[in-house]
Amino acid sequence: MGYDRHPIGMTMQYPVPDQTKVNQPLYASRAEWISPGYDDEVFAAGGVPQAPGAPPSRWLVDPPAADGRKVIINDTDHYALGGDALWAWKSFLRGLHPILMDFGLLGGVNPPDPAAGGPMSHAAFEPTRYAMGDTLRFAERMNLIDMAPRDDLSSTGYALANPGQEYLVLQPNQADGRFTVLLEPGTYAAEWFSIQDRQTVPGEAMTIDRPTALDFSAPSQASGPVVLYLKVDSTT
Q1: Which three-class secondary structure string do you get for the chain?
Q2: In the CATH scheme, what is the code of domain 146-232?
Q3: What is the pLDDT of residue 56?
Q4: Alpha-carbon distance 190 to 129, whole Å?
Q5: pLDDT for position 114
């Protein structure tokens, strides 16, 4: 009789003597997936990022890229009181699997007042829920198995790429304006996606004859943080 094989995982342990080393046992284990937690130096004295006035953890604002050793589940419950839409996209572009500790649903999926204000309200987490769904839709349309986080290919530091075939690049800060992407030769179709408005804007096709660091700027229709999706035209 056969048995289905399920991946084995480990999550962050708490409390521990040295918070900066909390993730070392996870990476050193035989677990196939892990869910790390805050290991920032600022918390070495035992502080927690949820404390009032504490600086945010790197896992929230600039998560480290997955290196292929483990499947990494990026769970906000391990380092923050929730996450926003940009957190979901940053995690995805760094090769992580974002999971939201959704405090807005603690009162049930139909809270008495879904539109009530406040940082822990149901409405406050709605953009994050949509963003997680949007990253899933991109994951399903791309050949994700051949893509890897490549912060060296974009001046923004956020890119998933199979060089010469597909690129997904995040520009998290609209104020930074133009950014560059290092492209391999090919003819590419381009598409912009606005994280804030959740709108898709077609881009111009381009042909690259040699490896080139090409400048990009989001179209005016795509406001706020954006992602740029480039895919080689296999018909050419």
Answers
A1: CCCCCCCCEEECCCCCCCHHHCCHHHHHCCCCEEECCCCCHHHCCCCCCCCCCCCCCHHHHCCCCCCCCCEEEEEHHHCCCCCCHHHHHHHHHCCCEEECCCHHHCCCCCCCCCCCCCCCCCHHHHHHHHHHHHHHHHHHHCCHHHCEECHHHECCCCEEEECCCEEEEEECCHHHCCEEEEECCEEEEEEEEECCCCCEEECCCEEECCCEEEEECCCCCCCCCEEEEEEECCCC
A2: 2.60.40
A3: 86
A4: 26
A5: 53
Residue with tokens 């997904």: 168
Domain boundaries defined on the chain: 9-141, 146-232
Radius of gyration from C-alpha coordinates of the chain: 19
Cβ 148 vs Cβ 161: under 8 Å: yes
**Tokens 């502080």, located at residue:** 47
Tens-place pLDDT, residues 59-107: 999 999 999 999 999 999 999 888 999 999 999 999 999 999 998 887 6
- Say which amino acid occupies 193: F
Which positions ≥6 away from 214 have C-beta within 8 Å?
A: 180, 181, 182, 183, 206, 208
Cα 171 to Cα 192: distance, rounded to the nearest angstrom: 11
Q: d(Cα 59, Cα 181) in Å, to the nearest integer?
A: 24
Q: Is 41 exposed, middle or buried (0-12, 13-18, 19+ CB in 10 A)?
A: exposed
Name the pLDDT band for 1 (thresholds 50, 70, 90).
very low
pLDDT band (50, 70, 90) for residue 123: confident
Q: Look up the pTM and report it.
A: 0.90
